[in-house]
């Protein structure tokens, strides 16, 4: 199948909008591949941390992007493990430190350019669900199906609070809300690929909606 004929569903939105959970479930239901593009930026953030790089040193971060090997391995049960330079970094990737590093690194144009082809390589038959910030605008602008997920900042902070509490991490909702608003502002205001919906994306506000309802709504716009 020529690459352009392989269908792509892009799911973009801010952190905590439910993108990850929804994208994985939709990909499983469709039997399509799944790209967690945020994990690539987080992986570079983790690798930069291991190498003790300064987050203000753009040149070093760009070199780190080229030098870092990132692998995804599916384990029984559908769980996805992320390998950074051969080490399983899945849990480290999800930390607030890795998220903040990823957000800073993602503002560097050369890093985004270096990751473009790696992301496009995920487009394989029978289809791809791509989760991120610029999937519908920059990486797969020709995708036939595009969704932009949102949720109120308060609800996103609450969801994150529950996730972290379940893991035994001690945080406050107010602190998380402040972090979410700061990250939103940084992701939306950067000059390269700022967070914004593609013109042809279907907007879904997930505030107050359960996962099943959102999955059903997303599936309804995909016509295989
Ligand atoms: O979706 P996430 O929280 O795992 O993403 C981590 C950071 O990476 C986020 O702050 C913005 C950045 N990111 C990006 O700039 N472009 C993407 N396609 C995905 C993530």
UniProtKB/TrEMBL annotation:
Matching SUPFAM superfamilies: P-loop containing nucleoside triphosphate hydrolases (SSF52540)
Family stated for the protein in its record: Belongs to the cytidylate kinase family. Type 1 subfamily.
Signal sequence, start to end: none
Residues engaged in binding ATP: 13-21
Catalytic activity: CMP + ATP = CDP + ADP; dCMP + ATP = dCDP + ADP
Keyword Calcium (UniProt): no
Entry keywords, A to Z: ATP-binding, Cytoplasm, Kinase, Nucleotide-binding, Transferase
Main enzyme class: transferase
Record carries keyword Transit peptide: no
Gene3D superfamilies: P-loop containing nucleotide triphosphate hydrolases
GO CC term, one of those recorded: cytosol
Taxonomic lineage from the root: Bacteria, Pseudomonadati, Pseudomonadota, Gammaproteobacteria, Lysobacterales
Enzyme Commission code(s) on record: 2.7.4.25
Subcellular location: Cytoplasm
Name used for this protein in its record: Cytidylate kinase
Entry superkingdom: Bacteria
GO BP terms in the entry: nucleobase-containing small molecule interconversion; pyrimidine nucleotide metabolic process
Organism (species): Luteimonas aestuarii
NCBIfam families membership: cmk (TIGR00017)
Domain Cytidylate kinase: 10-222
InterPro entries attached to this UniProt entry: Cytidylate_kin (IPR003136), Cytidylate_kinase_dom (IPR011994), P-loop_NTPase (IPR027417)
MF terms (GO), sorted A to Z: ATP binding; CMP kinase activity; dCMP kinase activity
């Amino acid at each position: 199948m020529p690459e352009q004929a392989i269908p792509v569903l892009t799911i973009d939105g801010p952190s905590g909008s439910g993108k990850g959970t929804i994208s994985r479930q939709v990909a499983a239901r469709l039997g399509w591949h799944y790209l967690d593009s945020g994990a690539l930026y987080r992986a570079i953030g983790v690798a930069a941390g291991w190498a003790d790089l300064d987050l203000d040193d753009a040149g070093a971060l760009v070199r780190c992007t080229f030098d870092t090997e990132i692998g995804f391995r599916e384990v029984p049960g559908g769980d996805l493990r992320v390998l950074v330079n051969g080490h399983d970094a899945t849990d480290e990737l999800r930390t607030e430190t890795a998220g903040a590093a990823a957000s800073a690194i993602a503002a560097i144009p050369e890093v985004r350019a270096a990751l473009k082809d790696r992301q496009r390589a995920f487009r394989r038959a029978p289809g791809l669900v791509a989760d991120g910030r610029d999937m519908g605008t920059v990486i797969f602008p020709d995708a036939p199906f595009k969704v932009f997920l949102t949720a109120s900042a308060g609800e996103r902070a609450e969801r994150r609070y529950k996730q972290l509490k379940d893991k035994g991490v001690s945080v406050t909702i107010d602190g998380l809300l402040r972090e979410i608003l700061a990250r939103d502002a940084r992701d939306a205001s950067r000059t390269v690929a700022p967070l914004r919906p593609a013109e042809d994306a279907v907007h879904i506000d997930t505030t107050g909606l359960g996962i099943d309802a959102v999955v059903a709504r997303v599936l309804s716009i995909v016509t295989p």
